[in-house]
Amino acid sequence: MKVKSFHYTELGLYYLVVFLILQEWLIPILELTKTGHMGLILIFIGICLTISLFNVHFIISWIVKITYIGWFIAKVYKDLSFLTSDGFSFLLSEMQYNLVVVISGRWLEITDPFRTFLFFVLIWMLIYLIHYWITVRRTIFYFLILTIFFIATLDTFTEYDGTYAMVKVVILGLLMTVFLYVKNIIIQSGITVHWYKYFNLVMPAILLIGLVSVVGIVLPKSDPQWPDPVPFIKAATGQGDGVEGGNSVSKVGYGTNDSRLGGAFVADDTVVFLAQADAKQYWRVETKDFYTSKGWEQSANIPNESAYFNVSEDINYSLPTGPEENAKIAEITQINPFDFIMQPYGMKRVELDPDYNSEYSELGLIMNTNTEKIYPYGDDKILKLDRYSVVYSKPTYLYSDLQSEPTVPIDPVAFEPYLQLPDTLPDRVVDLANDIVKGATTPYQKARAIESYFSRNGYKYETDNVAIPTADQDYVDQFLFETKMGYCDNFSTSMVVMLRSQGIPARWVKGFMGGEIVDTNGSIRTYEVTNNNAHSWVEAYIPNVGWVNFEPTVGFSNMRSIEFDIETSDREEELVLEEEQQQTVEELERDREQQPTSNRNDKNFFANLVDLINRNHIFFVIINLSILFAGIILLITRKKWLPKLYVQLNRRKTMNEASFETMYTQLLKVLEFRGYKRKNDQTLHSFAKEIDSTFGTNEMSKITHVYEQYIYGKHDENIDFNKLKESWEYLINRSSS
Amino acid sequence: MHQKIESIISNIEKVMIGKREVAQLSVVAMLAGGHVLLEDVPGVGKTMMVRSLAKSVGAEFKRIQFTPDLLPSDVIGVSIYNPKTLQFEFRPGPILGNIVLADEINRTSPKTQSALLESMEEASISIDGQTIHIPKPFFVMATQNPIEYEGTYPLPEAQLDRFMLKIRMGYPSPQEEVEVLRRAEHNQPIGTLDSVISLEELLELQEEVKNIYVEDSIKAYIVQIARATRKVSEVYLGVSPRASIALMKASQAFAKMQNRDYVIPDDVQYLAPYVFAHRIILRPEARYEGITQEAILNRIINKAIVPIKRYAEK
């Protein structure tokens, strides 16, 4: 009876693990196919597993399963009870209809209830297969590999995030492997195993799995060694897109939703456009003005007005431009066309090749005056242009203008949207900003101070492990005081917030930055801009000058041109700073506007755990190392402390049948530490003689004689163990001294 | 040491010098109800050993000298027509004794050997359709010259299996041999031996041996050794389950001799070469290389894992 209950508990344990693994299969399937009723399907899996656990007669098992499937379909599709005549006739007619459809091979006409039925049958068969694997083959390897492959595939090619599913499956799979391996050993050796023994067999492996998992999570992970294959595959199959919106699976690139910033993102080398220009540019797309403490939104304070321009007409917007005689042309070739114009600083107008896009009679441009995002249109439709040119002339700021004291105070009404701050902004952000700008007198000096603050104070550029603010946390506050690492969004948003706290109007700018030179033709270079080049930065309103762009992100250099018309010690500082930033720009040139990879609202236990470990990285490493170190020390010195421990443990115990065997085994172990190891083929009797002749005593033979009587003799004999305790203590002390 | 058994052995020692181990092993086989094959060259005291043992237990001692022309009827007896009673009368052969010495058993033909060995196994003889039980205790000690010697008929494997132990006498050490000579100067001391134990007491001891406890782990240990003999590459044929039974019974008797009422692995280890060696058949190539059965058994015992825990609790 005891054996039987053990058997069922053991199998039950296996099935529980299998259930958890199956759940990881089911979640992405249901999520991606938008299927509901997860709970009810899980119950079905539970029923199937329970039935195979107890080896129920197959007729009963079939009846139970089919009844459940029938009930489920009737309930979900018609909200009918299975037992009513309506429900029953519904199922019957479905079955009839679909059988005809199947037989005639008109697969597409199969109805949803029948598909559901087939899905259930699939689960049923899968569980039968797993049952076979576990109880007959006693191996889970193929199932495990299949599961991992399945999750990895979904994670790579769909928006399903399998990070934690993968960790869970690997841990569960290792556990299952251990259980089955132990089971195999037990069966092969033919021994009867009870709870205690089973626990002893399984525990070391479980502890090891725990340790390995924690170490695995804590260890730093290298970036992918290969470029992401998805864009390549998509391009090759003609599905390429880098545009946000729709059902795009692209995880990186230019996105419109910035309401919740933070989180890690994955690189994406998809080429967005090629730009032929004389120098590296910031390609401005739009600005945002409303900071929500979690991210950016478009404010309702400025009406969303549209301004219309013709092609080749000068565009009138908030930024200054340089003189016409310095104008240059940049040609943009969009590989994955966006529906908006890339604006270099100093942009004057957009031009189109006359032969190009001739199918549209009325080509023009619409600009949202709030965000300054410019869309091309033709025939009243927003277009995606493959090719266009922009004429620009970079403004040169006079240093004396930048440095001058504001002559008129900033109009708080006109600039209100650019001075907005959330009420929940922690005071320490403002205090920090106050500290940073101490000593700076003009707005430009203050802005410079804030811009350079990050690189001078050890803030790190980081794309993985970037935190997401929790419900009551501020995005900027978290970055400035807690994590101190992040990517462009963290730096630019923080700078905007700090500028605003100092009364300097500022806005957040999104676009692309830089790109890789792929071709050179005289002074004109062709830059290849990829999704990895998506970027965000800052524009601040400097009195007497207008909007000036700033680059707070560590590793990126600013490209404003300043004419130093007055001698100033600041000049050197400017140059030094430029240089510092230039040095790192090469290595860290990749920054991106990103769509975070994980669903931020859905942080589960695992995510929290990983967050916790990541945040206290060093702490966990130290704890692990010290546990490891202590373990090694204890292992090395066990010869010293183990005998004493044994004596202590058994001091108050009286020798009796239960304790005798353990104590004798401990004695053997202690003797082994001293170098008196009994060989496997040596009998206890001859071993005891050997020990006694070494120690010049007969205690070992005395105690061994009783032990022999205990293990080889009739079990009902009365043995007086208690007088042996002295011998035992004597021997332990002798061998450990 | 068990008092009565010790008295038998020390009695034998009065005559046999330096052969305590052989005496002990012989007594073990007798107590376990098995038979012994003594193998050695002539003149090392095989016959003396058996005679002194027979004297010590006060048993009826019979001796058969095997020669090439000996017939089965010379062993088990023959029915002779008695003209007075006008009937056939059975004249029992020398096999019908308590302790039988079958001297130089490998000098006779296989036919006669079989007659002896079958009666050993059955503890009874059949003649003229009549079954005659051999009185208990019944203990055969056979001696044989090493089979390499001239004019011998090697015993078939199946028949070797019927001997519980095969013991080698070996030459005495120089000091012992001097002592042997000193005693031989006068008369044979064998005539002076008295019995130290009655037949009833011997039967009682045999019953007690059967009750010696053998823990399952010890049985598993015996089986472990037996099975290992079947897997050695030099061995053509390993030992049979009958051999395992013999080892267990011998171990029980040995434990009894040590005055213990349970068997320990030491008993098994000590007896295994005596019980198993003659039942292992080596491959010819191994024999040419000079590998002996004893060497193989030692190797096996050195690999077998001694049980030091109780067999799985139930």
UniProtKB/TrEMBL annotation, chain A:
Q: Which residues cross the membrane?
A: 12-30, 36-64, 76-93, 113-133, 140-158, 164-186, 198-219, 618-636
What InterPro entries does UniProt report for this protein, alphabetically? Answer: Bact_TGase-like, Papain-like_cys_pep_sf, Transglutaminase-like
Q: Which UniProt keywords apply?
A: Membrane, Transmembrane, Transmembrane helix
Q: Which organism is it from?
A: Ureibacillus acetophenoni
Q: Which residues form the Transglutaminase-like domain?
A: 480-554
The domain of life is Bacteria
SUPFAM superfamilies hit by this protein: Cysteine proteinases (SSF54001)
Report the Gene3D superfamilies cross-referenced here. Answer: 3.10.620.30
Return the protein name. Transglutaminase superfamily protein
From TrEMBL, chain B:
InterPro entries for this protein: ATPase_AAA-3 (IPR011703), CbbQ/NirQ/NorQ/GpvN (IPR050764), ChlI/MoxR_AAA_lid (IPR041628), P-loop_NTPase (IPR027417)
Q: Which Pfam families match?
A: AAA_3, AAA_lid_2
Gene3D superfamilies from the entry? Magnesium chelatase subunit I, C-Terminal domain (1.10.8.80), P-loop containing nucleotide triphosphate hydrolases (3.40.50.300)
In terms of superkingdom, the source organism counts as Bacteria
Q: Name one GO molecular function term.
A: ATP binding
Q: Is rRNA-binding among the key words of this record?
A: no
Q: Do the record's keywords include Nucleotide-binding? A: yes
Give all residue intervals belonging to the ChlI/MoxR AAA lid domain: 227-300
User: Where is the ATPase AAA-3 domain positioned along the sequence?
Assistant: 35-165
Q: Which UniProt keywords apply?
A: ATP-binding, Nucleotide-binding
- Which protein family is named in the record? Belongs to the MoxR family.
- What is the name of this protein? MoxR-like ATPase
Q: Which organism is it from?
A: Ureibacillus acetophenoni
